[in-house]
């Protein structure tokens, strides 16, 4: 087995560090239904947070709107889209500040990692930077990452969304890291594809999914390129040891 020299751990934010997806998609659904009415889009039934999350988990609001314009044949000006993106941020951040909690077990892992100082820690998300920062601030995780928080919606010259690998490539360039010295933790297909396409080993995390959904998500994340599946944050240390030894 070839031993790896992993120096950096890149964490997705939504439903990896914090249980934010359901809260965020509730706000998104309300806004998308409003846009549908304004654009005379005939929906079979209004979107709910639950139906949106099934289709778009791992994507940011801008990415969702690009997909929905293609699907329903309507258009938005860049100015309209920017305005709705800003409104979506405000709606979601308000919900997060009210109700957000960390994923079970992750704070203990982050605390241990911070004490050991073995790895450089960063956040790499599709979500807008304001939202990501508000999330980690709310649950007190900001102290582990400092300024190393990267957003596909905000940090890039041209905004994008996972599964585009651009945000991982940007994060590595900014941190001065190579793909072979990084590990990413992702809970979605789009996020896993993003990390894998950037050449990074991805741990697929299925903790936030229901017991009924876990087997399906394990398969989806594995097919998207995850090198190992993690069901609970208590498994993280053992997984990292195996990755460092070249066993994964």
Automatic annotation (TrEMBL):
It comes from the Eukaryota. One of its GO terms (molecular function) is phosphatase activity. NCBIfam families: HAD-SF-IA-v3 (TIGR01509). This is HAD-like domain-containing protein.
